[in-house]
Amino acid sequence: MPELAQIAGSFGHLLHEAGVPVTPERSARFATSVTLAEPQSLTDLYWLGRVNLITAHDQVDIYDRVFAQVFRGIVDMADFRGDSSHQAPASAAPTGERRPGDPERTGESNNNPRGSSATPGARDENEDGTEEASMIAAMSTDERLSNKDFAAVTEEELILIRKLIEQLPLVPPMRKGRRERTNTAGRRLDIRKTLRASYRTGGDPVKLVKRARVPRPRRIVFIADISGSMEPYARVYLHLARGGVLAIGAEAFVFATRLTRLTRALSITNPDIAYRKAASAAPDWSGGTRIGETLKRFINEYGRRGIARGAVLVIISDGWEIEDPALVRTSMERLSRLAHRIIWVNPRKAVASFEPLTGGMAAALPYVDTFVSGHSVQALEDVVRAIRSSAVDRAPKLEPTAKPIGLSHAQR
């Protein structure tokens, strides 16, 4: 079960995205009020949040919708049926129940019964712990999906997994910028601004203006394998790449037998249109895999022109190569000289007996800085953590420990 601070923070974040200017201080105040008041019903929780998180009457409708989104699956609606003196908010209860503060309803319409397909069955008056059981059940679903392999999820579970991925904080590593800006902690003296400031003190440079190089975020580049063996994972990482494109200006590429740039397609705000354009832009979806030729084309057409220079490359592939692995080794060697760090995500690494013996993987591994599995939401956190920690210097490369084994397409 999540901590109260996590629930309050997520609730405030969703309200902020929906248009209510909720600050971290208000979210903390909401969590404190819940701890002190110890609400016994959904109505109590509703009003605690409404008092602490919104500041204008026109924000009530937005608050009601987000409240329903967050707490409908956590709190059992059956707790507020029957003769209870507390009534659930309209936004968090099925059609027919009233919002706190509305006039009481004198009866129930046959066309609008209290309850729906999302409402649990009738609750025994002597039953205890229903609310706690509902909360644990909702959170256990997230925990189960967090550890489930992407290749084994259903379409319904994929939608829930995408919501979990949206909560992952994708933070790019920082680098020293080339330009200098005024900075009180800087070490270089800005003589021009210092002399200009001295005009106010009769030509005496009392105030020394200093400059420093401004940190800049490093570019993140996603290169995802969409061949047949990687298709279950590619659809998840396409969602992560779109989040990176929208949030931090990342670059997104996919490949099977050819390289396709999807940055422009994934930058569309509407997710359905974005994924539809991305699918139509990559005609080789679920095809074979030419890693070496793909990386060579990426370097020649994009990498040397600046996209890969000093960037963090995130390559998502299982390493199966239908052509000569020597081209993979040559391309990875060139990429290692261009990029700041290379992160390779291979879902097959999650298997305990995994050994990087396939031709492409064995050829690429000596030039990889971080090697992770990323086969589930929990493992995806390792990918996000590796991206965030890529500001450190690259470790020296090791010599290949296994001889690459070239596999034909039929052997895949």
UniProtKB/TrEMBL annotation:
<dbReference type="InterPro" id="IPR011195">
    <property type="entry name" value="UCP010256"/>
</dbReference>
<dbReference type="InterPro" id="IPR008912">
    <property type="entry name" value="Uncharacterised_CoxE"/>
</dbReference>
<dbReference type="InterPro" id="IPR036465">
    <property type="entry name" value="vWFA_dom_sf"/>
</dbReference>
<feature type="compositionally biased region" description="Polar residues">
    <location>
        <begin position="108"/>
        <end position="119"/>
    </location>
</feature>
<feature type="compositionally biased region" description="Basic and acidic residues">
    <location>
        <begin position="96"/>
        <end position="107"/>
    </location>
</feature>
<dbReference type="Pfam" id="PF05762">
    <property type="entry name" value="VWA_CoxE"/>
</dbReference>
<feature type="region of interest" description="Disordered">
    <location>
        <begin position="82"/>
        <end position="132"/>
    </location>
</feature>
<protein>
    <submittedName>
        <fullName>Unannotated protein</fullName>
    </submittedName>
</protein>
